[in-house]
Amino acid sequence: MKSLLLYGAHDARVVDVPEPEAGPGQVKIRVECAGICGSDLSLFEYSPIPSDFVHPLLCTQGPHALGHEFAGRVVAVGDGVDDLPTGTLVAIRPNVFDGTCAACSRGEVNLCENGGFIGVSGGGFSEYVVAGRDAAYPVPEELGAEVAAMIESTAVAWHAVKQSPASEGSSALVIGAGPVGLGLVACLKARGVSTIHVSEPSAARGRLAADMGAVVHDPTVDDVVARLNADGGVDVSFDASGVGQPTYDTALRALRPGGTSVVVAMFHDTVQVNLQEYMVSEKKLIGSMAYTADDFAEVIDAVTSGVLDPRPLITGRIVLDDVVSQGLEHLLGTGRNTEVKVLVSPGDVD
Ligand SMILES: [Zn+2]
Protein backbone atom coordinates (compact mmCIF):
# COMPACT_ATOMS: atom_id res chain seq x y z
CA MET A 1 0.00 0.00 0.00
CA LYS A 2 1.01 3.63 -0.37
CA SER A 3 2.19 5.52 2.69
CA LEU A 4 3.97 8.84 3.27
CA LEU A 5 7.23 8.27 5.15
CA LEU A 6 9.57 10.90 6.58
CA TYR A 7 13.23 10.19 5.78
CA GLY A 8 14.68 13.50 6.96
CA ALA A 9 14.15 17.24 6.92
CA HIS A 10 12.28 18.19 3.72
CA ASP A 11 12.54 14.56 2.60
CA ALA A 12 9.17 12.81 2.70
CA ARG A 13 8.12 10.30 0.05
CA VAL A 14 5.01 8.32 -0.80
CA VAL A 15 6.35 4.78 -0.95
CA ASP A 16 5.03 1.23 -1.12
CA VAL A 17 4.95 -0.47 2.31
CA PRO A 18 3.43 -3.73 3.59
CA GLU A 19 -0.28 -3.44 4.38
CA PRO A 20 -0.83 -3.65 8.18
CA GLU A 21 -3.10 -6.35 9.63
CA ALA A 22 -5.31 -5.97 12.69
CA GLY A 23 -4.00 -7.80 15.75
CA PRO A 24 -6.05 -8.73 18.82
CA GLY A 25 -8.12 -5.79 20.02
CA GLN A 26 -7.31 -3.75 16.93
CA VAL A 27 -9.23 -2.44 13.95
CA LYS A 28 -7.97 -1.94 10.40
CA ILE A 29 -9.38 0.98 8.50
CA ARG A 30 -9.15 2.09 4.90
CA VAL A 31 -8.32 5.77 5.20
CA GLU A 32 -10.76 8.06 3.36
CA CYS A 33 -9.55 11.44 4.52
CA ALA A 34 -6.61 12.88 6.49
CA GLY A 35 -5.87 16.46 7.48
CA ILE A 36 -2.45 18.12 7.34
CA CYS A 37 -1.51 19.57 10.73
CA GLY A 38 1.00 22.25 11.66
CA SER A 39 2.91 19.57 13.56
CA ASP A 40 3.18 17.51 10.34
CA LEU A 41 4.76 20.63 8.81
CA SER A 42 7.16 20.97 11.76
CA LEU A 43 8.16 17.32 11.48
CA PHE A 44 8.69 17.74 7.71
CA GLU A 45 10.71 20.92 8.21
CA TYR A 46 12.94 19.76 11.06
CA SER A 47 12.62 15.93 11.22
CA PRO A 48 13.35 15.92 14.98
CA ILE A 49 12.59 12.24 15.69
CA PRO A 50 15.56 9.95 14.93
CA SER A 51 14.76 7.01 12.63
CA ASP A 52 16.16 4.55 15.17
CA PHE A 53 13.83 5.79 17.93
CA VAL A 54 11.35 3.05 18.84
CA HIS A 55 8.22 4.33 20.57
CA PRO A 56 7.56 2.39 23.81
CA LEU A 57 3.84 1.87 23.11
CA LEU A 58 3.55 2.01 19.33
CA CYS A 59 6.75 -0.03 18.88
CA THR A 60 7.31 1.78 15.58
CA GLN A 61 10.59 3.10 14.30
CA GLY A 62 11.61 5.28 11.39
CA PRO A 63 11.25 6.23 8.70
CA HIS A 64 8.12 7.48 10.47
CA ALA A 65 4.71 7.59 8.78
CA LEU A 66 3.07 11.02 8.96
CA GLY A 67 -0.56 12.01 9.43
CA HIS A 68 -2.51 11.84 12.69
CA GLU A 69 -5.81 13.56 11.75
CA PHE A 70 -7.69 10.89 9.87
CA ALA A 71 -10.89 8.96 9.35
CA GLY A 72 -11.91 5.97 7.31
CA ARG A 73 -13.93 2.80 7.13
CA VAL A 74 -13.45 -0.37 9.11
CA VAL A 75 -12.33 -3.15 6.74
CA ALA A 76 -11.22 -5.76 9.31
CA VAL A 77 -11.11 -6.30 13.06
CA GLY A 78 -8.82 -8.41 15.24
CA ASP A 79 -9.76 -11.00 17.84
CA GLY A 80 -11.92 -9.65 20.63
CA VAL A 81 -13.49 -6.84 18.63
CA ASP A 82 -17.16 -7.60 18.03
CA ASP A 83 -18.85 -4.20 18.21
CA LEU A 84 -17.58 -2.46 15.10
CA PRO A 85 -19.08 -3.78 11.86
CA THR A 86 -17.12 -3.68 8.63
CA GLY A 87 -17.94 -0.50 6.72
CA THR A 88 -18.41 1.68 9.81
CA LEU A 89 -17.12 5.24 9.36
CA VAL A 90 -14.72 6.00 12.21
CA ALA A 91 -12.54 8.88 13.35
CA ILE A 92 -9.28 7.75 14.95
CA ARG A 93 -8.11 9.33 18.20
CA PRO A 94 -4.40 9.05 17.49
CA ASN A 95 -2.91 9.71 20.92
CA VAL A 96 -1.82 6.56 22.69
CA PHE A 97 -1.16 6.24 26.43
CA ASP A 98 -0.09 3.51 28.82
CA GLY A 99 -3.06 3.87 31.18
CA THR A 100 -0.86 3.16 34.19
CA CYS A 101 1.40 6.17 34.85
CA ALA A 102 0.61 8.87 37.41
CA ALA A 103 -0.90 11.20 34.78
CA CYS A 104 -3.10 8.45 33.34
CA SER A 105 -4.20 7.52 36.89
CA ARG A 106 -5.44 11.10 37.27
CA GLY A 107 -7.38 10.78 34.00
CA GLU A 108 -4.96 13.11 32.26
CA VAL A 109 -4.09 10.66 29.49
CA ASN A 110 -3.01 13.57 27.25
CA LEU A 111 -0.10 14.03 29.65
CA CYS A 112 0.95 10.35 29.76
CA GLU A 113 4.63 9.75 30.52
CA ASN A 114 4.78 7.29 27.62
CA GLY A 115 2.32 9.10 25.38
CA GLY A 116 2.64 9.27 21.64
CA PHE A 117 0.68 9.77 18.47
CA ILE A 118 -0.09 7.52 15.56
CA GLY A 119 1.24 9.50 12.65
CA VAL A 120 4.06 11.15 14.49
CA SER A 121 5.89 8.00 15.35
CA GLY A 122 4.13 5.47 13.44
CA GLY A 123 0.03 7.43 9.76
CA GLY A 124 -2.96 8.75 8.27
CA PHE A 125 -1.30 9.60 4.98
CA SER A 126 -1.56 5.92 4.07
CA GLU A 127 -4.14 3.71 2.41
CA TYR A 128 -4.67 1.58 5.52
CA VAL A 129 -4.01 2.11 9.23
CA VAL A 130 -4.35 -0.23 12.20
CA ALA A 131 -5.34 1.20 15.60
CA GLY A 132 -6.65 -0.02 18.92
CA ARG A 133 -10.43 -0.50 19.16
CA ASP A 134 -10.58 2.17 21.87
CA ALA A 135 -9.07 4.70 19.43
CA ALA A 136 -11.82 4.18 16.81
CA TYR A 137 -14.90 6.39 17.29
CA PRO A 138 -17.92 5.71 15.07
CA VAL A 139 -19.10 8.87 13.29
CA PRO A 140 -22.65 9.20 11.93
CA GLU A 141 -22.70 8.41 8.22
CA GLU A 142 -24.39 11.71 7.34
CA LEU A 143 -21.38 13.68 8.60
CA GLY A 144 -19.07 12.04 6.05
CA ALA A 145 -15.35 11.30 6.09
CA GLU A 146 -14.22 14.93 5.72
CA VAL A 147 -15.95 16.02 8.91
CA ALA A 148 -14.75 12.84 10.61
CA ALA A 149 -11.17 13.74 9.71
CA MET A 150 -11.69 17.19 11.27
CA ILE A 151 -12.59 15.75 14.70
CA GLU A 152 -8.97 15.48 15.85
CA SER A 153 -7.89 19.08 15.28
CA THR A 154 -11.24 20.32 16.61
CA ALA A 155 -10.64 18.28 19.78
CA VAL A 156 -7.41 20.21 20.38
CA ALA A 157 -9.44 23.45 20.42
CA TRP A 158 -12.26 21.86 22.45
CA HIS A 159 -9.83 20.79 25.17
CA ALA A 160 -8.26 24.26 25.28
CA VAL A 161 -11.67 25.92 25.71
CA LYS A 162 -12.50 23.44 28.49
CA GLN A 163 -9.19 24.23 30.21
CA SER A 164 -10.20 27.92 30.22
CA PRO A 165 -12.94 29.54 32.30
CA ALA A 166 -14.76 30.70 29.14
CA SER A 167 -18.49 30.36 29.54
CA GLU A 168 -21.73 31.78 28.21
CA GLY A 169 -21.44 35.54 27.94
CA SER A 170 -17.60 35.63 28.22
CA SER A 171 -15.43 37.62 25.85
CA ALA A 172 -12.39 36.02 24.21
CA LEU A 173 -9.38 36.82 22.08
CA VAL A 174 -7.94 34.18 19.74
CA ILE A 175 -4.48 34.92 18.33
CA GLY A 176 -3.93 33.17 15.00
CA ALA A 177 -6.67 31.98 12.64
CA GLY A 178 -5.08 28.73 11.53
CA PRO A 179 -6.70 25.32 12.08
CA VAL A 180 -6.57 25.50 15.88
CA GLY A 181 -7.44 29.21 16.05
CA LEU A 182 -10.53 28.84 13.85
CA GLY A 183 -11.34 25.64 15.74
CA LEU A 184 -11.27 27.74 18.91
CA VAL A 185 -13.73 30.21 17.33
CA ALA A 186 -16.10 27.32 16.54
CA CYS A 187 -15.73 25.78 20.02
CA LEU A 188 -16.13 29.13 21.82
CA LYS A 189 -19.33 29.75 19.83
CA ALA A 190 -20.56 26.28 20.81
CA ARG A 191 -19.93 27.24 24.45
CA GLY A 192 -22.00 30.41 24.13
CA VAL A 193 -19.11 32.89 24.32
CA SER A 194 -20.70 36.10 23.14
CA THR A 195 -17.80 38.16 21.81
CA ILE A 196 -14.87 36.53 20.02
CA HIS A 197 -12.00 38.69 18.80
CA VAL A 198 -9.41 37.24 16.41
CA SER A 199 -5.96 38.68 15.74
CA GLU A 200 -4.68 37.48 12.37
CA PRO A 201 -2.45 39.20 9.79
CA SER A 202 -3.56 37.07 6.82
CA ALA A 203 -6.53 38.63 5.01
CA ALA A 204 -7.75 35.25 3.71
CA ARG A 205 -7.72 33.65 7.14
CA GLY A 206 -9.22 36.79 8.66
CA ARG A 207 -12.15 36.59 6.25
CA LEU A 208 -12.84 33.02 7.34
CA ALA A 209 -12.82 34.11 11.00
CA ALA A 210 -15.20 36.99 10.20
CA ASP A 211 -17.50 34.62 8.31
CA MET A 212 -17.62 32.51 11.49
CA GLY A 213 -18.77 35.53 13.48
CA ALA A 214 -15.52 36.81 14.99
CA VAL A 215 -14.41 40.44 15.23
CA VAL A 216 -11.14 40.39 13.28
CA HIS A 217 -8.09 42.57 13.91
CA ASP A 218 -4.96 42.77 11.76
CA PRO A 219 -2.05 43.08 14.26
CA THR A 220 0.18 44.62 11.58
CA VAL A 221 -2.05 47.70 11.47
CA ASP A 222 -4.34 47.55 14.54
CA ASP A 223 -3.27 48.05 18.18
CA VAL A 224 -5.14 44.97 19.43
CA VAL A 225 -4.24 45.51 23.11
CA ALA A 226 -5.40 49.13 23.13
CA ARG A 227 -8.54 48.28 21.24
CA LEU A 228 -9.58 45.51 23.67
CA ASN A 229 -8.56 47.44 26.78
CA ALA A 230 -10.79 50.27 25.65
CA ASP A 231 -13.63 47.86 26.45
CA GLY A 232 -12.05 46.68 29.74
CA GLY A 233 -10.09 43.72 28.33
CA VAL A 234 -11.25 40.20 27.51
CA ASP A 235 -12.00 37.40 29.97
CA VAL A 236 -9.86 34.79 28.18
CA SER A 237 -7.20 34.79 25.50
CA PHE A 238 -5.73 31.95 23.47
CA ASP A 239 -2.38 31.96 21.69
CA ALA A 240 -2.87 29.56 18.78
CA SER A 241 -0.07 31.13 16.76
CA GLY A 242 3.12 30.33 18.69
CA VAL A 243 4.77 33.37 17.11
CA GLY A 244 6.65 34.30 20.31
CA GLN A 245 7.12 37.45 22.36
CA PRO A 246 4.68 39.69 20.44
CA THR A 247 1.77 37.25 20.69
CA TYR A 248 2.58 36.30 24.29
CA ASP A 249 2.51 40.01 25.20
CA THR A 250 -0.78 40.58 23.36
CA ALA A 251 -2.43 37.54 24.95
CA LEU A 252 -1.50 38.76 28.45
CA ARG A 253 -2.12 42.48 28.06
CA ALA A 254 -5.45 42.17 26.26
CA LEU A 255 -6.86 40.39 29.34
CA ARG A 256 -8.99 42.10 31.96
CA PRO A 257 -7.60 41.88 35.53
CA GLY A 258 -8.13 38.30 36.73
CA GLY A 259 -8.39 37.00 33.17
CA THR A 260 -6.85 33.78 31.87
CA SER A 261 -4.49 33.26 28.95
CA VAL A 262 -4.22 29.80 27.36
CA VAL A 263 -1.19 28.57 25.41
CA VAL A 264 -2.35 26.10 22.76
CA ALA A 265 0.42 26.52 20.21
CA MET A 266 3.93 25.14 19.91
CA PHE A 267 6.45 27.85 20.77
CA HIS A 268 9.87 27.19 19.26
CA ASP A 269 11.44 30.20 21.04
CA THR A 270 11.35 31.18 24.70
CA VAL A 271 9.64 34.40 25.73
CA GLN A 272 10.35 36.84 28.55
CA VAL A 273 7.79 36.74 31.34
CA ASN A 274 7.36 39.59 33.83
CA LEU A 275 5.90 37.90 36.91
CA GLN A 276 5.02 41.27 38.44
CA GLU A 277 2.34 41.66 35.77
CA TYR A 278 0.68 38.48 37.06
CA MET A 279 0.92 39.45 40.73
CA VAL A 280 -0.62 42.88 40.43
CA SER A 281 -3.38 41.81 38.05
CA GLU A 282 -4.12 38.25 39.24
CA LYS A 283 -4.02 37.13 35.62
CA LYS A 284 -3.45 33.43 34.95
CA LEU A 285 -1.39 31.59 32.34
CA ILE A 286 -2.27 27.98 31.56
CA GLY A 287 -1.27 25.42 28.95
CA SER A 288 -3.40 23.04 26.94
CA MET A 289 -2.08 19.83 25.40
CA ALA A 290 -4.01 17.73 22.89
CA TYR A 291 -7.20 16.12 24.31
CA THR A 292 -8.57 13.27 26.33
CA ALA A 293 -10.84 10.43 25.20
CA ASP A 294 -13.80 12.34 26.70
CA ASP A 295 -12.95 15.44 24.64
CA PHE A 296 -12.89 13.37 21.45
CA ALA A 297 -16.33 11.87 22.15
CA GLU A 298 -17.76 15.28 23.15
CA VAL A 299 -16.62 16.84 19.86
CA ILE A 300 -18.33 14.09 17.86
CA ASP A 301 -21.53 14.66 19.88
CA ALA A 302 -21.34 18.45 19.41
CA VAL A 303 -20.74 18.14 15.65
CA THR A 304 -23.54 15.57 15.35
CA SER A 305 -26.01 17.83 17.21
CA GLY A 306 -25.02 20.77 15.01
CA VAL A 307 -23.70 23.16 17.69
CA LEU A 308 -20.17 22.76 16.34
CA ASP A 309 -19.22 22.87 12.66
CA PRO A 310 -15.60 22.40 11.54
CA ARG A 311 -16.43 22.51 7.80
CA PRO A 312 -15.61 26.22 7.25
CA LEU A 313 -11.96 25.38 8.04
CA ILE A 314 -11.54 23.13 4.99
CA THR A 315 -9.73 25.11 2.28
CA GLY A 316 -8.13 22.41 0.15
CA ARG A 317 -8.49 18.81 -1.02
CA ILE A 318 -5.66 16.81 -2.59
CA VAL A 319 -4.77 13.18 -3.24
CA LEU A 320 -2.05 11.18 -1.48
CA ASP A 321 0.29 11.14 -4.49
CA ASP A 322 0.43 14.96 -4.29
CA VAL A 323 0.77 15.26 -0.49
CA VAL A 324 4.36 16.52 -0.58
CA SER A 325 4.17 19.06 -3.43
CA GLN A 326 0.58 20.29 -3.02
CA GLY A 327 0.39 19.62 0.71
CA LEU A 328 3.51 19.97 2.86
CA GLU A 329 5.59 22.16 0.56
CA HIS A 330 2.60 24.29 -0.45
CA LEU A 331 1.64 24.91 3.19
CA LEU A 332 5.20 25.94 4.04
CA GLY A 333 5.26 28.23 1.00
CA THR A 334 2.54 30.19 -0.76
CA GLY A 335 -0.24 28.40 1.12
CA ARG A 336 1.05 29.50 4.52
CA ASN A 337 -1.20 32.54 4.67
CA THR A 338 -4.13 31.38 2.60
CA GLU A 339 -4.91 27.80 3.54
CA VAL A 340 -6.35 26.54 6.80
CA LYS A 341 -7.04 22.80 6.60
CA VAL A 342 -5.96 20.79 3.58
CA LEU A 343 -7.45 17.29 3.42
CA VAL A 344 -5.71 14.35 1.78
CA SER A 345 -7.52 11.35 0.33
CA PRO A 346 -5.74 8.19 -0.81
CA GLY A 347 -7.49 8.35 -4.18
CA ASP A 348 -7.98 5.08 -6.00
CA VAL A 349 -7.15 2.16 -3.74
CA ASP A 350 -6.10 -1.14 -5.29
ZN1 LIG B 1 0.31 7.15 31.15
From TrEMBL:
Judging by the UniProt lineage, the source's domain of life is Bacteria
**GO CC list:** cytoplasm
Against Gene3D superfamilies, the record matches this protein to:
Medium-chain alcohol dehydrogenases, catalytic domain, NAD(P)-binding Rossmann-like Domain
Cofactor(s), by name: Zn(2+)
Species source reads Gordonia malaquae NBRC 108250
Q: Which UniProt keywords apply?
A: Metal-binding, Oxidoreductase, Zinc
* InterPro entries with a match to the protein in the record: ADH-like_C, ADH-like_N, ADH_Zn_CS, ER, GroES-like_sf, NAD(P)-bd_dom_sf
Please report which protein family the annotation says this sequence is part of.
Answer: Belongs to the zinc-containing alcohol dehydrogenase family.
Report what the protein is called: Putative alcohol dehydrogenase
Q: Which GO BP annotation is one of this protein's?
A: butanediol biosynthetic process
Enoyl reductase (ER) domain ranges (all copies): 8-320
What molecular function terms (GO) are annotated for this protein? (R,R)-butanediol dehydrogenase activity; zinc ion binding
Report any Pfam family annotated for this entry: ADH_N
